[in-house]
Amino acid sequence: MSAQPAPDREVPRARFRPPSVPQVDVHGFWGSRVDAVADKTADILYKRCVEAGMLDQIDPDRPVPALRIPFHVSDGFTASTVTTQMFWDSDLGKTIETAAYSLYRKKNPALEAKIDAVIDMYEKLQQPDGYLSSWYQRMQPGLRWTNLRDCHELYCAGHLIEGAVAYYQATGKRKLLDVMCRYADHIDTMFGPEPDKKKGYCGHEEIELALVKLARVTGNDRYMKLAKYFIDQRGQQPHYFDEEARARGADPKAFHFKTYDYNQSHKPVREQDKVVGHAVRAMYLYSGMADVATEFGDDTLRVALDRLWDDLNSKSLYVTGGLGPSADNEGFTSDYDLPNESAYAETCAAVALAFWANRMLGMGPNIRYADVMELALYNGSISGLSLDGSLFFYENPLESRGHHNRWKWHRCPCCPPNVGRMVASIGTYMYGVADGEIAVHLYGDADARLDIGGTEVRLKQQSRYPWDGAVGITVDVDKPTRFALSLRIPGWCRKASLSVNGEAIDLSAATVDGYARIDREWKAGDTVSLNLELAVERLYAHPEVRQDVGRITLKRGPLVYCLEGIDNSVALNRIKVPGDASFNANFEPDLLGGVVTLTAEAADDSPEGWNGTLYRTAPPKSEPVPIKAVPYYAWDNRDPGEMLVWLRGG
Length: 650
What we know:
By secondary structure, this protein is of the alpha+beta class. It has 17 helices and 22 strands. 34% of the residues lie in helices and 18% in strands.
């Protein structure tokens, strides 16, 4: 018997929710990245959307534009580059979200005026019944709600909802929020278990997690129940996508990707136990499932989520937090299939993994999820954005011969605004807040203003993390306030110490699920000192990962490292790291915005003496060679060249 949906009822279990962007100001490592997004990325996103012609489609005062065929030029963005029109509302939704967070970070009246004008266009475009889709209103009128499987209708709505929530929270302006509430109300009249409603859901998941955000900011439980409906309905029989195809006169089998594994609708979600299909869709679905599990106390969803979590993390996750090895389906293939040079590892997928992990923490602090969130944030996601915020990766391989370089835009520009909005909202990932509880998931310089039962708790974090493991937290409250403060002790940390006001805390007694929990009455000026050892570690892949047999990768704290040709004097695959090699960690303030590099003495299999032969009976001569490794996220920010994550081990 398959697991059944949990009833629509509240449960007493603590529900941890993230703070909003205006509640956390970040500095240090993440502060510089948020500044890059605010200074460059947000404006670039808007400019590229305009140049692609997106405003011609959403502005009802302009002539209906011609259908444009997408293509991509290899040397980067040109004014003639066209993106996939059907998805334009989603691109603009994420651009609005990125702009919102950037406007909170730094005033930018010109950008704000441009975004306000876009919002005005959407308000004018909205139909009297609340419906809003530039594609189906302007390009294919009369066909709305006829092809949920392929046409991203609800997906686009979801990204516009997220943009609306962000713009309201960051600027206080609610015009787009009101527009999207009307659209969500319309969607609620169209979909649901009632006999007169459609039994559908989107082929590309996203609406589910967006509706949860909308419910939280408006307090309207109708949106929360609609999110739950979309989760519960997915994969049920008779299959909606089959019925929908027949209704529009199409053959249900004429599906480009052949199988509903591709969009995770092959089974009801509670019966799924393997991560399959398109990687971004999967991560968005699981994010929505985790939100619903948190809000409804649905343990049937949590059981399924943990099965899927185990499958991903034990068989299909790159060491960088990247996922989805194949370009064919932009997703998963078979167990342990993790090629390096041809890795797809879409930026959006790592971003979406951070979304999922963060939402799993809604059910309570646990390093099982927080460690993976940190891995994805520091490595596989921000590798997709150049240090200055102007260039992007769509794919994030773990090996390059020097020809994989950052680009200015893409015919499917989902990744630039996705990584932009994630970086600009990083403060929301740092904490979780529940009734009488605060969890600290991520460390670094930050000032947080969190609400505990109507009392503002101000936490000031001071740290050079991830370069240094010393973290200081100062508590500021207007009156003594009791709450539990849970501090993550990362799974990669082999040695840690913790004290409150100079008094040592017994970590073995205080730690639950990898978090040190301190429940006490806190007073203004109380201090917490946490010290995490940042040791250089060698990681080995599972023996079934054939591409990494006999190889190692380097990790220090949350950061995965790689070699770049620009720092090393020999071809990278000739390098062999002896088992007894000792690595030195050195902070270089003038390199890549300031990074800790790892240096060691390794061996080089020299090509000298081969005299034109391709094969011989004697092994190559080995010579000593110094090597330098840099954080993976920072690669390809200098001159193009080789890059390698998995090194030959001794």
